[in-house]
Amino acid sequence: MPTRLQAVRDRIATACARSGRSPSEVTLVGVSKTHPPEAVRAAFAAGLRDFGENRVQEAEAKAEALADLRAAGLRWHLIGHLQGNKAKKAAALFDVVHSVDGAELAARLDRAAAEQGRVLPVLVQVDLAGEATKFGLEESGLFATLESLRAMESLRVEGLMVLPPWFDDPEATRPFFARLRGLRDGAVARGLGGPGLSMGMSHDFEVAIEEGATIVRVGTAIFGERGGPAPAPLEPPLAPRE
User: Which is the CATH superfamily of the domain at 4-222?
Assistant: First the structure.
């Protein structure tokens, strides 16, 4: 019986094969929000290195409990909305911030990263559906905002991120992923950021990979339902994968 993590890796490999890509082009971020540090530790032992959190406070507690793994290669990704007043903590804690949704937040992160003497990799979140419950830049203002971010010396824009609407049929998300890829291509052509595309979750990451995702954010398929029973053990350990 394959483990949850290996099953996800196999699905990534299959999706990459369908689209003529290498699995090495796709970073798997395990969405560990609401799951305890022990679940992160088990996934790390099974070879996962990148973990996504939604809230700074929850991530702080986990990072403290898992400080030994950070030194061994664990990387924290902020994938949820970031309030400006938490920018300083976020710049210190996370290796990548996926949810930059405006120039003001970017400026705060830039100042915080400069104070810490680091360059912070970020992705800019784009709102492609206009859902009231989600954040992100409007498509019409994306390139102007990216232009303003180019002057920030302590941020490195690695690409774009999207949270599409939920559909029972994963195929329904394809147009959103394709639109984000087109915006990414336009940004790269203008010299306004890197080629990263953070898109796709447990139910639709294969479609996202087919549309060019370089980062997929997978929680339930690895850790089980949030607040539900503990996921199946991630044994036997797998060799670490970078």
Answer: Alanine racemase (3.20.20.10)
